[in-house]
Structure prediction request, 689 residues.
Amino acid sequence: MSPVSDSTNRVVPGPQEPEKTYHPSDGLFTDAHVPDFDAYLAIYKKSTEEPEEFWADVAQEFYWKKPRSGQMLQYNFDVNKGNIYIKFMEGAKTNICYNVLDRNVHERNLGEKVAYYWEGNSPNHHQTITYNQLLRNVCRCANALKLLGVKKGDRVAIYLPMIPELVYTMLACARIGAVHSIVFAGFSSESLCERIMDAQCNILVTADSVYRGDKLINLKKIASEALERLRIVISVSLSMALCVQKCVVVKHHAFRTNSDASNKLQTPWDESCDIWWDDLMDGVSDECEPEWVDSEDPLFILYTSGSTGKPKGVVHTITGYMLYTSLTFKYVFDYHHDDVYWCTADIGWITGHSYITYGPLANGATSVLFEGVPVYPHVGRLWEIIEKYAVSKFYTAPTAIRLLMKYGKEPLQRYDLSSLRVLGTVGEPINPEAWLWYYDVVGQQRCPVIDTFWQTETGGHVLTPLPAATPLKPGSATCPFFGVQPAILNEHGEELEGEAEGYLVFRKPWPGIMRGVYGNQERFESTYFRKFPGFYVTGDGCRRDKDGYYWITGRIDDMLNVSGHLLSTAEVEAALTEHPSVAEAAVVSRPHAVKGECLYCFVTLKDHKEFNRTLMEELKRKVREKIGPIATPDFIQNAPGLPKTRSGKIMRRVLRQIARNEKDLGDLSTLADPKVVEVLFSQRCEAAA
Ligand code: WTA
Prediction:
């Protein structure tokens, strides 16, 4: 590939190049870690041909209490050859909290450097946290957790908004060798309970209340409901191992000074279990010796939707994750010490774990930690924050870009965005229109748009451009990161060469890949390794073009992606069928201008039940309560019958086409009752419920 730049940094397509490519690196990256595509290819070659040496070099930057003596990587990806496992630098001892904090403070002299500019939901709330302060706060929290009896290997559930205490708690767990299980604070009490139970957490850390935009949420009430639910399960199962002994409650910054607001909501309180964060930290030492743990000890569990409905607890271990998030952060954002980096994700998702906490801190970076939402108190909030902190590297989701596009250029023109150098996206395929708006309007055609493809399971970026090196094609996540070896397979598991479309898989592990599904090896193997023995299966479809660029085409399992968040159709269906009026439900995705995809639900009611607005509202509420507001259906259609094969399998393809109003349905001969399709078409929802 040899793209040629014109004066606007756009590459003019030649006869062989139907897509326009973009390469806006001229003059912007004089000191880039990877200055051009040839340099990328050379490093990539080394990473795949000499992985031991490659990763040994990366590992050298970190602190090891006990260095590696055995093999760098051991693994099996082939279910026919025994259990699936991945081990990276097993036997070496370290501590990730030490590496991301103490090493910066004591070895790199970054104690006075800002680790986070915390920016609250309200622009009036902000705080600057240096590496020194972060280390001290993390140590206090670590000591406090120890006082509560938390030890190495114990699981701690964290259900907090985007406040500094969230970072303190996760790093405190890492410091003492405990395993954090962070549950996004938008999940319902039922989802929280399910996750606490699955991971058998015995401590929960939450907050009293939180404002999201102008909406006040009583987080503690949701947490208390989750614990109440848990107690009921325990009393039935008589398993005390499921018990949460202590619930630590942070008094949110917004309510410390504003007594009016704090009085609005009652914080439910259980004297035997609940304890205020401030009381717990009172008088606790701000020094804490790290627990020296094995490379392959677990670092965290993070739940992600599964196609069977029950979420999977994705397990990541310490060293592989540390090296991989650190290295990807450095290269993918072309990180330099004077950068101010901002990732708008929530730490409750993997993007926040890897690219707000661990990756940036491992590099000694300064980040913005943002609690709010993009359009509160005004639609220019993100641009205002970029100007305020002179953000140079900005990482967000296509859904946020599409939302902000709706307000046009004017809100951006009020702010100085000249500090920006690199723009990243993650979470779902970015449509070229949003890509171009991001590039033209936000980046003013100066900044490369880095479309990073990855998953909770991959730990870090796996397909991604590098800012100065990779010519960009809007909508393509471009090329593999160092050490990552993608392949495309057809339905029969045959590997496709050159230009091709099929299943995206990986043929070898990289250090950051998941190590398992918590407590369920069988599910780990069947979800990711059984379909195509010898490969990790992403569940995404993918096309490779003639230049070797990868284009993600979306999920090919029963998952859908709403605003960058994966949801399982089965989980939503289970929520709908819990309603006493519903006999059966089938959920499919339908394209949505801002969210990317939204939920379109078909429900078949029990005999003599009436489909009306009240029922629709009840169904929506049911889904919100069971899963959380992100899963709220946009469309609910009354379906007297569902299109099924003679063996009773629902043909989702047909339902998807009805939802999208695609009339050309192809072969329906396998349907038990093809007439049902006509009926569903005639009653399809045009407008959102
Ligand atoms: C989708 C988020 C296209 C994909 C880090 C993947 C993407 C799922 C991209 C993982 C991208 C993520 N282009 N699709 N750049 N990034 N996806 O686990 O379907 O929340 O499998 O991890 O999001 O979502 P998860």
Summary: The mean pLDDT is 92. The first helix runs from residue 37 to 49. The first strand starts at residue 10 and ends at 11.
